[in-house]
Specification:
Blueprint: E1 2-13, H1 22-34, E2 44-54, E3 58-59, E4 67-78, E5 85-94, E6 97-102, E7 105-110, E8 118-121, E9 127-130, E10 137-138, E11 143-153, E12 158-163, E13 170-173
Parallel strand pairs: 7-12
Antiparallel strand pairs: 1-4, 2-4, 3-4, 5-6, 5-11, 6-7, 8-9, 9-10, 11-12, 11-13
């Protein structure tokens, strides 16, 4: 789920920042551009740990005066994997299943991946309730433990499919 990776990025810097604080400006700009964003196949960048090197700047030829710097850095990234077990918070429930949030990524659990002893209930707030004793309820703000069974990564976001079927999976705590 969380990893330390060594990455590289080209940053464009305006000429007004050239001077004794150039390194600080490059590090600030790097943090602004990568932290909290999805980085394609690597996942979400949680934070930049350190900048290992900043290459020599190359002045762009488009007449703006900007310089491009190649920055090598290490960062903590968050990426889900198939068969990973995660604790999530349910964000919405409908007849097709429910959506949940686990850190920066969203997980959908189809009603086919919810145990058979749960039944969709529309009385009051939509929820899934266990048939055995009715004590287990999946509704908004419920904490649930899931297994990730599928992932879809693209440049802008990570989307997962989860399952509540399995040993030690299910409701952790009810909604407040």
């Amino acid at each position: 789920m969380f990893y330390v990776l060594y990455l590289a990025k080209d940053l464009d810097v305006h000429p007004r920042h050239f001077g004794k604080n150039l390194r600080d400006e490059i590090e600030r700009k790097l943090n602004d551009e990568v932290e909290g964003k999805c980085h394609g196949k690597y996942g979400y960048v949680v934070c930049v740990i350190s900048v290992s090197s900043i290459g020599k700047g190359k002045i762009r030829q488009d007449g703006t005066g900007y310089a491009t710097f190649k920055v090598h850095y290490s960062a903590v990234v968050c990426r889900p994997y198939i068969d990973e077990v995660v604790d999530v918070v349910v964000t919405s429930v409908n007849k097709a299943g429910f959506f949940a949030q686990a850190g920066p990524y969203e997980i959908f659990v189809s009603n086919h991946l919810i145990p058979e002893d749960y039944e969709f209930n529309t009385v009051g707030e939509p929820c899934y309730t266990s048939n055995e004793d009715g004590a287990q309820t999946v509704q908004e703000r419920t904490e649930v433990r899931l297994r990730i069974v599928g992932t879809n990564l693209n440049q802008a976001e990570i989307f997962c499919i989860g399952s509540m079927k399995g040993d030690f999976l299910g409701v952790i705590s009810a909604a407040p």
